[in-house]
Design a protein that fits this description.
The chain is α+β, with helices and mostly antiparallel strands. The protein has one domain (about 10-105). About 40% of the residues lie in helices and about 15% in strands. It has a three-stranded antiparallel beta sheet with strand order 1-2-3, with helices on one face. The radius of gyration is 16 Å and the shape is globular. InterPro entries: DUF4907. It comes from Flavobacterium calami. This is DUF4907 domain-containing protein.
Length: about 110
C-alpha cells in the first residue's frame, strides 16, 4: 500500500506565491490613488530590515534578506533602504514587488 504524503515544500511555495499575489493586489490598489508609499528602516537583533507603509499602515515588513537561502538580516541600514526603494519603484510601475537575486547583486547588497 502506498500512502501519498503532501509535499510541505510545495505547499509553502504555493502559499508564499498566493500571499505575494494578494499583497501585490493590495499595493496596486493603494498606488492607484496616487498616494505615496513610505520606506523606513528598522533595527533587528542581527542587523537591519525595512517597512513599507501606506497611510501609516505597514504593508510590508521585511526583516531578512529575501531570495537568499540563509535567514540573515541586512548588514547596513543603507542596504535595507536600497531594497525598500526598489520595491516601491516596482510597485509604482505596476509590476510585481518581488526581489530577485540579480536585483540584490545589481544593488550591491552584502549577502
Amino acid at each position: 500500500m502506498i500512502i501519498n504524503t503532501p509535499n510541505l515544500k510545495f505547499f509553502r511555495y504555493g502559499f508564499r506565491k498566493n500571499l505575494l499575489f494578494i499583497l501585490f493586489f493590495i499595493l496596486l490598489m493603494a498606488c492607484s490613488k496616487k498616494e505615496t508609499l513610505e520606506a523606513e528602516s528598522i533595527k533587528t537583533a542581527s542587523g537591519w530590515g525595512y517597512t513599507i507603509s501606506y497611510n501609516d499602515k505597514i504593508l510590508i515588513k521585511q526583516t531578512i534578506i529575501p531570495v537568499i537561502s540563509e535567514v540573515k538580516s541586512f548588514s547596513s541600514e543603507e542596504d535595507a533602504l536600497k531594497v525598500a526603494d526598489l520595491v516601491i519603484k516596482k510597485i509604482s510601475r505596476n509590476t510585481s514587488p518581488s526581489v530577485t537575486k540579480n536585483d540584490l547583486i545589481l544593488l550591491k547588497i552584502k549577502m
